[in-house]
Design a protein that fits this description.
Length: 135
Amino acid sequence: MVETAIFAQWMHDEGSPLFYARWESGEIDIVYLNEVDVSWCVEVKWSNRYAENPAELKSLRSFAKKHKLQSPTITTIDIDKIAIYDGLSLSFIPASLYCYTVARNLVSGKFGRNSMSEYFDESNIANLQIIKSID
């Protein structure tokens, strides 16, 4: 249900090249493809578990490294923080805040798409925390 709610917010941007990625050993819920390559991805979760234990995000970490994505996004119930893990900057954001921010930015015309950071800046995310690497 959360995946549907989040993906529905992206429907405000007609023609956006969003995809679901699936392979034998994993999947990624939202993948943005530019003309040549993957620009960013989002793993939709309705759990805080992954923010506390990013080692469980094996598919996401593998996908991000393969496509040279430095900061994949993961939704949570109510945790917003950045965790440095396995050489990646994992951006955790509450699903409700993610939905709101995507819809607001798309409807108001903020269409920069090269990275998720163009959609989310510090004014959009309350209490953003950077935690030390837990490699």
